[in-house]
Amino acid sequence: MNAEQLRECGHKMVDFIADYYKDIENFPVLSQVQPGYLRELLPGSVPIHPDRLEDVLDDVQAKILPGVTHWQSPNFFAYYPSNSSIAGFLGEMLSAGINMVGFSWITSPAATELEMIVLDWLAKALNLPDDFLSTGQGGGVIQGTASEAVLVVLLAARDRVLRKIGKDSIGKLVVYSSDQTHSALQKACQIAGIHPENCRVLKTDSSTDYALSPESLNEAITQDLTIGLVPFFLCATVGSTSSTAVDPLLALGKITKSNGIWFHVDAAYAGSSCVCPELRHYIDGVEEADSFNMNAHKWFLTNFDCSALWVKDRSALIQSLSTNPEFLKNKASERNMVVDYKDWQIPLGRRFRSLKLWMVLRLYGLENLQAYIRNHINLARHFEELVAQDSRFEILAPRNFSLVCFRLLGPQGNEECANKLNHDLLDAVNSTGKIYISHTVLSNKYTLRFAVGAPLTEERHVVDAWKTLQDEASTLLRSL
Ligand SMILES: Cc1ncc(COP(=O)(O)O)c(C=O)c1O
After folding, report:
1. Could you tell me the distance, in angstroms and rounded to a whole number, from the CA of residue 245 to the centre of ligand 1?
2. DSSP tag of 238
3. Model pTM?
4. For residue range 309-318, what is the model confidence (pLDDT) as tens digits?
5. What is the span of the domain harbouring residue 310?
6. Residue 450 falls within a domain, yes or no?
7. 269 three-state secondary structure
8. Of 172, 330, 407, 415, whose CB has the highest number of CB atoms within 10 Å?
9. Which of the four pLDDT bands, split at 50, 70 and 90, describes residue 131?
10. How much distance in Å is there from the Cα of 44 to the middle of ligand 1?
């Protein structure tokens, strides 16, 4: 590592990335390459002699970027956003520069302490109950993804109950969720050894706007108790992946509390919006939860990856995930004076991810972050109005945040035809390269999802996107 060489190459790389952002609207949003395209373009083995940075960057431009789907494009409306920002980027850069591995406090005290402080800041900005702060029995930790977050709390909950009823009872443990819960929970259950027949996926429908009904949870728990099973974990969602459904946390929390069930709240996408006081009501009832998760890397200007998880009882996590090999022993840990985040997560090694969240919070400030969220919500509201004005389309779920679920109406009453029509519309708009949207299925209806949330998206992008959708819809309808 030669500092002057780093300076020179670093400047070139920043220029390259800045130019990428300048040109980003000129790329097809969804990569249009065919599977295997890259093997044709790159040599089959490692270069024996070093290549020049300029040549590598030329290859990135000519060979890599065509195979990139541009998540930072202002015309990216698929899935949920995965934000990047100058502050987030600088934080990532600094983290790469320092490149420490902060698994135990001793391995880089600042990494652990900054993470604790920044997650306390964010917990306060979200108005989370004090029980989630690191000053009490709880605390926050940055996981890579919401999937890791739900896995670690599931393990903590599993082991907490097994300590009471004995390890051999794992086959009796029951997990509850809704049919709108992210598949991350299913994967976590597979990893945690929860028997698949004990995963209750409770049905939702449009009568509750796809929210989990407390009555159906109660019923399922009662049935399971009657046959001697042990209910132990509920995953509720605020802002479901398909349609931004919001489960009623308060009512669900009361049920979990009276049954000794660990209550996890997955607000991976929508959690960010709760820094706005007028949107905070969406997580009312989080007081009842044992753990709460939001992805700062989705809609909070923090470059991937940065998934914030808070727990009320950190000792449950630590009891489940700690190891204490000789080669990691140190005075601070042994005297119980510090947090060792290795015991709050699956891997040992961990990056200095709090730096970028700290940068985002400091360089933008809460007021700007709130304005950022509100702007996207207003843009989504505008898109929703445009859809509502065109009688060929219908809206399929309430727009709680910045996602609009809609579809093109098919010929009268023919659902199969309507589903195919919307599938074709999705393909048609995405192959234009002008925008990228994704889909889901709600009540057996093939549904188009338009998620606003890329940092560069402005009103003109939303209006143009709607025009693209209308044009492609007209073409398809003419061909029917
Ligand atoms: C509600 C919800 N939970 C969990 C996830 C999974 O997120 P991750 O990729 O961070 O595991 C998503 C992804 O979009 C989501 O929308």
Report:
1. 14
2. B
3. 0.97
4. 999 999 999 9
5. 101-351
6. no
7. coil
8. 407
9. very high
10. 35
